[in-house]
Amino acid sequence: MDFSKKVLLWLVTPALAIAEPWKKHVIYEGARANVAVAADFTGDGKLDVISNSGQQTRLFVAPDWKEHIIDDTAGHNFIHGEVMDVDNDGDPDFIGARYRPGLVAWFETPKNPTVGKWKMRIADDTLNGIHGVLRGDVDGDGRDDLLANSGQPDGEHPNSAAWLRIPKNPRKAERWERYIFADRDAPGLSHYLGIGDINGDGRVDLTLAAKGGFDETKFGKGEWFAWWEAPRNPKKVFKKHALPGVHPGATNIQPADVNGDGKMDIVASRGHGTGLLWFENPTWKIHNINTELKSSHCLQVVDMDGDGDVDAATCAYESQIAAWFENDGKGNFTTHVVATGQAAYDIRAVDIDEDNDLDLLIAGQKSNNVVWYENPQK
C-alpha cells in the first residue's frame, strides 16, 4: 500500500485518525510559489511573510496578510530566499535567489515597508544555477554570511558552491565578497546546503546534495550527498567528503546531532526521489526516517515538539503530504501527518502565532499558494 493510501486510511479509520489536526491558514492563493520566509518586516512585533510568485515579490502583513508588492521587475523569479539584517540597522532584509541566469539580490527593508517598492541591490551575479541559499557564520566573525550553490555546468563557477561575505558598506558595495568552497567538484545539479562542525575541529563545515537525473553527459554525475571540510582559512577551497550510497533525487542535507552522542550526524532527503534518511557519524551508517514520501523537496531539522532532541519536517510535492518526524532521542523517527492535498517547494519551521511552539510555513508550487499550519501543541 502506498503512503497516500495509508494516509487516507488513517483519516477514515477512527482508531488511526490524527488526534490533533494542524489548522490550515491561507496567506496567499493564485500562482506558483517557490519560496516563503517569515520575519517582522513591519516592526510591529508580528511575523510577516515574504514570498515570490512568478515575477512579483510580495510582502504579506500579519495578522490579516494584506498584500504589498515590493518588487515586480521582469525576470525576478526567485526560487529561494533568506532573511538577514544585511545593513546592520536592526531590521530584517530579504534575500532573493534566481536560478538561471544566477542572481543573488537583497532588498533593504524601508522605513515604510508597505509604501512603494523596496530598493534592490545585487550581492552576486557570477554563480549560476542557484537552488539554495542559507545564512550561517562561516568565517567565525560573529556575523552571518550567505551560502549559495552554482549548480549549472557552465558559467564562471560551474558545478561549484560559494559563501558570500557581507561587505563593510553593503549599500554602496557593487557586490559581496565571494569565496568558492566547492571548486568544480559538485556536479549533477546540486540543490540545498547545510552548515555545522561535522568533524569536531571547531570550524564549521559545509554540506551539499545533487539530484542527478536526466542527462549525466551534460550535467555530470549526481545522486550524492557530501560534506566539505573547512580549512584553517575559510576563504580557501574546502575538502570534499562523499557520503556513502547512491541517492537518486538527492536535494536536502542538514548537519545535526540526531542520536544525542555529541557527534554531528547528517539528516537528508531525496526531494526529487523518495524518502528521508540520516547518516550516523563517524561511520556514516544510513538510517531511514521515511521510505514512502515522494519528492520531499523541502526540509527543516529542528526540535518540533520541544523535548530537547532534533526532529524533522517536510512537505512532499508528489505525495502532497506535509509531515513532521518525531525523534525519540536515539534516532528513531515516527511520522506525523500535518496535512494532505498540499504541495511544497519550501518549508520553514517558525512560530507564526507566537504561542511558543513551531508552526510550518509552506510555499506550495503545485498548490499555487502560501499557507501556514498551526501547531496544535499546548
Can you characterise this structure?
It is a single chain. The protein has 378 residues and is mainly beta. The protein is built from two helices and 28 strands. The chain has a four-stranded antiparallel β-sheet with strand order 1-28-27-26, with no helix packed on it. The radius of gyration is 20 Å and the shape is globular. Mean pLDDT is 93; it is low at 8-19.
Question: Which SSEs are present, and which pair or pack?
Answer:
Blueprint: H1 3-12, E1 23-29, E2 33-39, E3 48-53, E4 56-61, E5 66-71, E6 78-84, E7 93-98, E8 103-108, E9 119-124, E10 133-136, E11 145-150, E12 160-165, E13 177-182, E14 190-196, E15 205-210, H2 216-219, E16 224-229, E17 239-242, E18 252-256, E19 265-269, E20 274-280, E21 285-294, E22 300-302, E23 311-316, E24 321-327, E25 333-340, E26 346-350, E27 359-364, E28 369-374
Antiparallel strand pairs: 1-28, 2-3, 3-4, 4-5, 6-7, 7-8, 8-9, 10-11, 11-12, 12-13, 14-15, 15-16, 16-17, 18-19, 19-20, 20-21, 22-23, 23-24, 24-25, 26-27, 27-28
